[in-house]
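Q: What would this complex look like in 3D?
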Amino acid sequence: MDGSPGMIAEIETGDPIGVFDSGIGGLSILRALRTRLPQESFCYLADSAHAPYGERDPGFVEERACRALELFLKLKVKCVVLACNTASVVASQRLRSLTSLPVVAIEPAIKPAVQMSRSRVVLVLGTSTTLSSASVEKLLQAYGGDVRVLLQACPGLVERIEQGQISGRATHDILEAALRPGLDAGADVVVLGCTHFPLVMPEIVAIAGPQARVIEPSDAIALQLERVLPSRSAVSHHPLVRYFTSGDPLRFQRLLAMLGEKETEVLFWKQTEG
Ligand code: DGL
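A: Here is my prediction, written as structure tokens for the whole assembly.
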């Protein structure tokens, strides 16, 4: 199996929506997109060979997002969803300069969290690249107000999730170390600013306990997608979800099965460059 244009042309795409992440994190977004827009077809692209993005050079992530856009254009998508905070903060502007298609990007939900917080302490979890980005700085300036917003990376967590370790002692310990200082400082809202993190939601909620609400953006992104879709006329009567990975398709298929997507074909994202 490969993701070359010749192979793709044989498959009926029906104006799909392209969804991109470094790996399986964007599946937390794809779920909400499929629920809100059940008639739409999707192409999910995971750059698994280069995950995680969080500690990588932003220029590298930007280039990977451009390669992803190239594949999406070959697949004739009608819209691109960057289901990855890291790729969004690094590459959304560049992608928008390269295509006239709508590009839906994600940023940590700092604005709603600040509005929700009674304790006036909010904890934001994300990758180092996201948390140190100009986009997050802008959000803090615009909406932070009098709220103490604590920014916390979770070293090693995305790697573990990519290995399918969505529970277990080591995952719990990483989360405990990331969450505890913020919770002890009084945070009553926890923002999941990385799309991988909703995949370990039960563990996060268990640690956060009843004192803190945990929020993630998938429903908001689905609403946003619905708003920007160019036309409702091109929806498919047989909506399809196709998966592509730059890593090992069988490995990705196993991860999908673990997350409840059984009997799904995964194509190899073959690239001649980049
Ligand atoms: N899921 C991604 C995000 O939302 C990328 C995480 C990573 O690859 O480090 O930031």
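A: To summarize the key features: Residues 1-13 have pLDDT under 50 and may be disordered. The domain at 5-106+219-268 is CATH 3.40.50.1860 (Rossmann fold).
Q: Very helpful, thank you.
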